[in-house]
Amino acid sequence: MPILASLLTEPIGVAHYMVVGAVLFVCGVVCMATKRNALGILMGIELVLNGANVNLVALGSPYLRGESATLMLDGQLMAMFVIVLAAAEAAVALAIALNFYNNFGSIDVDRANQLKG
Amino acid sequence: MQSARHSTPMNPATTLPTILAIAWLLPLAAFALVWVGYSLPQMAGGRASYGAQRTAGWLATGAIGTSCVLAIVALIIWLTQTAPHEVATVHETAAAHQAASEHMASPPTSYSGIYYTLAQFGKLRISIGYYIDALTIAMFALVTLISTCVHIYSMGYMHEELEDMVDREIATPDGNYYHRPGRYHRFYQYLSLFSFSMLGLLLAGNLAMVFMFWELVGICSYFLIGFYFERPSASYAANKAFIVNRVGDFGMLIGLMALWSCLGTLDFGDSNTPGMFSQLRSEAHQYELDAAAMGSESADTNYLLLFVAGVGLFCGCVGKSAQFPLHTWLPDAMEGPTPVSALVHSATMVAAGVYLVGRCYPIFVPEALLVIAIVGAITLTLAATIAITAYDIKRVLAYSTISQLGYMMLALGLGGWAAGLFHLITHAFFKSLLFLCSGSVIHAVHTNDMRQMGGLRHKMPWTAYTMLIGCLAIIGAGIPALGIGLSGYFSKDAIIEQAWSFARVNESSGYQLLMWLPLGGAFITACYMFRLWFMTFTGMPANTERYDHAHESPRSMVGVLVLLAVFAVGVGWHVPGSKLSVTSLLERARPAGTLETTTGTWLPNLTVPDEHLSHEPQIAIPAGWSAFAMAMGGLLLAAIIYVWRWLRAEEIQQSFSPIHRLFVNAWWFDQLYDWMFVRPALWKSKFFAGIDRYVIDPFVNLLARGTAFLARALDLVVDRKAVDGSINGLARLTWDFGNSLHRLQTGNLRQYVVFIVVGLLGLFAAVSLCWKYALAG
Amino acid sequence: MNLDSPAVYLSLLTFLPAVAAVAIACFAPKDNAELIKKATLAVTVVTFVLSIGMLFGWPGIEFKAGQAEMQHLFSVDWIPTFRIDYLMGIDGISLPLVVLTTFITMLGMGASWPIDKHVKAYCVLLLLLETGMIGVFLALDFFLFYVFWEVMLLPMYFLIGIWGGPRREYAAIKFFLFTLFGSVLMLVAILMLYFSSDLRPLGADKLAELKVPAERIEQILDADTPQHTFNILALQQLGQSTEQFKTELWGWTYERWAFLLLFIGFIIKVPSVPLHTWLPDAHVEAPTPISMILAGVLLKMGGYGIIRICYPICPEAGYDLAWLVCSLGVVSMVYGAFAALAQNDFKRLVAYSSVSHMGYVVLGLGVWSAMSPTYNADYWKMGMNGAMFQMIAHGISSAGMFFMVGVLYERVHHRQIDQFGGIFARMPVYSGLAVGIFFAGLGLPGLCGFIGEFFVVLSTWKYCIPLAVVAAAVVILTAAYILWTLQRVYLGTTYLGPHEEALTPITPREMWIAAPLLALAILFGVYPRAILDYMEPSVSLTADRLASKTSDFDGEQQPEAKVAQALSPQVETTDIPKL
């Protein structure tokens, strides 16, 4: 794995952040794909979003990439947006989960296939 | 216009056409007057009164009588104003004839011209014209005279038609006889039309005009035969007469077409352009028949065309003159009133065929003449054999007419131009006399059947003895040693002499038959004519009731009989104190170049002898005596059977029963033709009509149905399947696609996530693999 | 209105019936049938007077007898884009047909009195039909001709389909489809000729003679592209003197294709075997006056088309296919006569006799006997004139025959020949007239039928002897079927059918229709020049012009000449014969 190997030898840069973001993202996706518990999936979503946030922040950081390569706080702004969205989404998702639980007495998403076409 | 060669103070070239045209048109005027004048009251629902009908009779008689006077005037003008034709002198010896033939090269005196043109196309012209020569004049006088006689006779004979008529031949369903208004004026109307047509035929200046009047006399004959059209037999006979004549006309048309196409004219005489005769027998060619005038490249073709033309024309004459094989219509034509039989079906119209052969004589090649002779010989024998067994008095006379016409044709065919036409004229007189006598008998006893008659000479002596004169004339009674006799004696002798002369120069046995048949025919003629006379007038009355009612006919009829009897006796004689006779008149019209002895081209051993050779004593004497012997033999046989009754007719019939049956049934010609022509024609007509009904129509309907089917099929296939189908198919495809996709929509969130991931990866892979360069750029 | 002008006069003659039809349709009271009939009759009489007015007319519109060329030629722009003109004219070929049309229509209207169903519509259609028929004979622009041809078709369809007998729908549709089939073929040929025609080689003088306006002549002559035309006279010129229609298509020249297509179109109308089966059905079902017009006039359009269009435009094809024309003519004659012999329906019999008699027309037009070595056109002239005469004669005799049948049908309502008999005794005047008219059909000398038949048959020998012999044999069959019919219908004592009491004598109205027909039959039979004087020059000119080309068609051309022609493909305009 020459790429990974080179990562370990280089100083911390965008690539490292992206690797972390990617790991978080993948963890989130795997979590979403495997958890049957709705809350687990929500957590997976948070992980994915935060993976993305790491990337946004890293790529938008003037420290990491230099002034000229960034668009001044864009990454951070986007991250903020994502966080806000994640919060809103979490609220809605929790509401759905709660309703779902009220109706089915369970939060197993595999039972939530009413929307199948 | 006129090819007159004589100019006299009263120029015949202008007077004759005018006089004859007036004589020709007078009967037409009478016809038109009666037609229109008598149809108008009928329109208004009325009918011609007794007096009016009588007037019609007088009108028609007056017209034809005037015509007759005019014709005789024309004859006198002709005799006084025109010089005799060089050939005209009857040569007594062969030597004189030889000398004459040296300077014979001149056509007969004739006047030809045009009254008006019907149509002209480039050089081709069809016109109403005239061709007047001695033959025309003689025939004109003959026809008008006999027609006048018949008109007068009919006033008595047809008087029943003046008032309501009871037709005893037709029984109505309620057991009575059929009653109808009289048609006296119609009868005279038809007679007038007939006279007009017949005179037009004689006057005609070209073959096209001949053909027109040929048809017109045919239709008059149709009307007159069908005069009692309520009788099915009469209407049937009328149809038969016309249609059989049309068969002959078909041949005549072929002849006309050949001549017309080859010569470019149908004119007899030369008016402006050379006529047929001078083209075919040009002066430069010594008036010999020159086939090269037919204009095609090969001589054989020319000769063939000329032969076809001649035989074609003769076909027309076969039809009109009731020659074998078209003779079957004439006996049936006796359905018409008897005066009609006398005028139309014995004296004039049926003789028109003979006249036409005589008129067109320059056209016939020797082979065509041979055809004519053979047909004539067959006809005269055939008809005579049938006549001998017939019991209907008119039928006997009808068959006798056919037989005598056969004689004429035979004579013409053997080169006896004058003999044939002479017999035509004498025959016209004695045959009309015979018919009118038979009419007088029928008028008296109201039947045609000779078995119902007998002994009538006591009741009607005038009729009986005028008829005896007629019978003697037809058998050619005369005394050869003295050279005197009735008219038939001269003409029949001339024919037999010519046959004898022909047989002498043509050795082959087939040609000999052409001499023996007329001789045999003379025997049979005498036999059946006297059978008729004996059965009718002598012996005991067979039917006393009819005998008691019989009476001599009114004076108008008897007067005519006597007049005709005089002619029947004397028409063959010379005018006292001159050389003038019918024969000499005819000789003036003899076509140039037809007197010489000619030989055939295809049949080199066929020789048509010069007619004058037949007058040589070594021919004339034996021929005359044998004819005399034959006639006397026949007369004796008739007397043996019917007067002295040494032989019984029934016994003869039984011992020759197959032959008798053949004769009685007229050789089964009617049945044969019915089987050979009439039925096949009807089958064919059914077949053709069937093609329409069962082939073409179904085909068209099939086509229509096919088109309708195709339309439906198109609707089904193209519209419903292709166009609609593709639209519906697209919709269905979309639907199905959606349907198939809905399975992916499992509702399973985790699965969705996997899809998202996989999709993302796929996209990523695709972008990185395919869009590498695009991204790079 | 200036009646001296031919344009006005001919247009008036053509469109007067149509205008009157519109007027009747709009203004006539619907319930007064008698008035409508009288008005219609008056219009037909006026039209007839207008048509014979040309024979006796005042300067400017009088028809000059003896002049062969087209008279009263005039042209008005109609659809300039395609150079379609309102082009009309009259000559010896069309004049007798126009007069025949107006005459028969007039008598037909007289014979229409017993019609009492939808009288107004009937009269309107009849008048429209008359306009169509006159227009066909007068139009000299191919497109105009085609329009009139179709215009005449529709009224006929309705007249048969509404006022006909029991199977009228079948008959009407059959008639319509047959004729339409023919006119479609005709249309193809028209377009074929149009697109291969080019006016430029004709030159200024010719075009001026054809009534092309002066400014357009310049335009035509200066043009770079071919100048197409619908002008029939121009097409005749082009067909006879240029090579424009000689383009090959599937082994045949355009000319041949056009001839064949046009010929099929026209013989359907004539009608000729095997395309004749619409005729018996149409006649049997059509009411009497319509039968009269159908037989008297409509059939003549086929013959007219052949002599006016087929032959002059496609002379070489005509020469090559003359055998086809003549054979069809003879076959029709024989076939029609035999079929007539088998009929038991009186009207069907007359219809088949029409097939037979019109066969003479086709035969007469086709006998192109101006052949090597003399190239003498006289016999063909005779045939053509005979054919044209036969058209007129048949127009009179067949109209008369149909009328005579109609008179009987009106009384006893059946047409079975074997259920008649004894009519002569019951209706003597009628029977006399009928026998006269039937004899005219039989071709008896002294009546009109004879002249045409005789001329045609006489002229055939020169073209082909076997055909002539067969044609001559038809006289026997004709006599047979007519006499047999007369015997079964008129002669005898007993009437065998129903409604014997209805056999009343002929009425004056019927008399006034039948008597003129018989009178004309006699007049034309005795004095055929009454027609021929007008007709013969034009017909003979047509034959002469075509016959003068025969030697070229025979391939008598010198080989060098052919080479020279091949080297200079541009057509020379100098050798166009004088118009």
Mean pLDDT of chain A: 83
* Net shape of chain B: elongated
Give the tally of β-strands of chain A: 0
Radius of gyration of chain B: 39 Å
Low-confidence stretches of chain A: none
Category from helices, strands and their pairing of chain A: mainly alpha
Q: What keywords describe this structure?
A:
heterotrimer; B: mainly alpha; two-stranded antiparallel ribbon; 27 helices; 5% strand; elongated; C: 579 residues; mainly alpha; 3% strand; disordered C terminus; cell membrane (chain A); translocase (chain A); quinone binding (chain A); NAD (chain A)
Description of the structure:
The complex is a heterotrimer of chains A (117), B (777) and C (579). Chain A has 117 residues and is mostly helical. Chain A contains 5 helices and no strands. Chain A is elongated and about 55 Å long. Chain B has 777 residues and is mainly alpha-helical. Helices cover 67% and strands 5% of the residues of chain B. In chain B, the strands form 4 sheets. Chain B has a two-stranded antiparallel sheet. A two-stranded antiparallel ribbon of chain B has the order 3-4. A two-stranded antiparallel sheet of chain B has the order 5-6. In chain B, a hairpin with a 7-residue loop joins strand 7 (598-599) and strand 8 (607-608). Chain C contains 24 helices and 4 strands. The longest helix of chain C has 35 residues, at 378-412. Chain C has a two-stranded antiparallel sheet. Chain C has a two-stranded antiparallel ribbon with strand order 3-4. The chains are: A mainly alpha (117), B mainly alpha (777), C mainly alpha (579). At the B-C interface, helix 1, strand 1, helix 6, helix 7 and helix 25 of B face helix 14, helix 16, helix 18, helix 19 and helix 20 of C. Chain C: The chain crosses the membrane at residues 6-27, 39-61, 86-109, 121-140, 146-163, 175-195, 257-278, 290-309, 321-342, 349-371, 391-409, 430-457, 463-484, 511-531.
